[in-house]
């Protein structure tokens, strides 16, 4: 018997990278998408967004799963956090902020479908005008990618 590693995400899983690569560590979501698309077997659609919008609910509602990837201001044990995202109507909506749980609420309310949703938050340190990640953020990106590859993208199967 031999272990075979197979990607378990496919075209029915949408990855949303949120951020702005011109604002240093705010670009972590985009940097994650840039890197994950080069992985063998990765064939999920990706979307780069400065911020989420109500209109994103139409695209998300057609999927089986969505994963939001964003930078995080603050401390996270290990430099990143993976958590489930549930639809919630309890959020503040402004023209500049719509959280993932709000988009999921619109999926449910407007389109009658709430796909499985998760959030990968990656800790950043610098937010100024700069087209590069800080050293700390780059290290946290590596940790988040390693976690994602081992626990989300690939699954071990037994080849009999």
By secondary-structure content and strand pairing, the structural class works out as: alpha/beta
Oligomeric state: single chain
Can you tell me the CATH class? Answer: Alpha Beta
Show unreliable segments. none
By CATH, the topology is Rossmann fold
Specify the CATH architecture: 3-Layer(aba) Sandwich
The 3D shape can be described as globular
Instruction: Name the helicity range.
Output: 25-40%
Distance between the amino and carboxyl termini: 5 Å
Q: In what range is the share of β-strand residues?
A: 25-35%
Strand and helix order: EEHEHEEHEHE
Radius of gyration using CA atoms only: 16 Å
What name goes with the CATH superfamily? HybD-like
Map the helices and strands:
Layout: E1 2-7, E2 13-18, H1 28-36, E3 46-49, H2 56-61, E4 65-73, E5 80-84, H3 100-111, E6 116-124, H4 135-153, E7 154-159
Parallel strand pairs: 2-3, 2-4, 4-6
Antiparallel strand pairs: 1-7, 5-6
Helix pairs in contact: 1-4
Protein architecture, described:
This protein is an alpha/beta fold and 160 residues long. The protein has one domain (13-150): Rossmann fold. The protein is 29% helix and 28% strand. It contains four helices and seven strands; from the N terminus they run ββαβαββαβαβ. Helix 1 links the parallel strand 2 and strand 3 (46-49). Helix 1 (28-36) crosses helix 4 (135-153).
């Amino acid at each position: 018997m031999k272990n075979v590693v197979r990607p378990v995400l496919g075209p029915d899983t949408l990855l949303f990278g949120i951020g702005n690569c011109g604002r240093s560590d705010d670009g972590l979501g985009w940097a994650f998408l840039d890197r994950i698309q080069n992985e063998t077997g990765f064939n999920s659609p990706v979307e780069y967004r400065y911020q989420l919008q109500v209109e994103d609910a139409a695209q998300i509602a057609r999927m089986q799963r969505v994963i939001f990837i964003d930078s995080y201001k603050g401390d996270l044990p290990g430099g990143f956090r993976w958590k489930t995202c549930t639809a919630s109507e309890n959020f503040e909506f402004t023209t500049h902020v719509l959280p993932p749980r709000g988009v999921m609420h619109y999926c449910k309310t407007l389109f009658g479908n709430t796909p499985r949703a998760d959030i990968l938050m990656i800790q950043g340190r610098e937010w100024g005008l700069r087209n590069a990640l800080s050293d700390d953020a780059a290290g946290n990106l590596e940790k988040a990618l390693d976690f994602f590859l081992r626990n989300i993208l690939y699954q071990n199967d037994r080849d009999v």
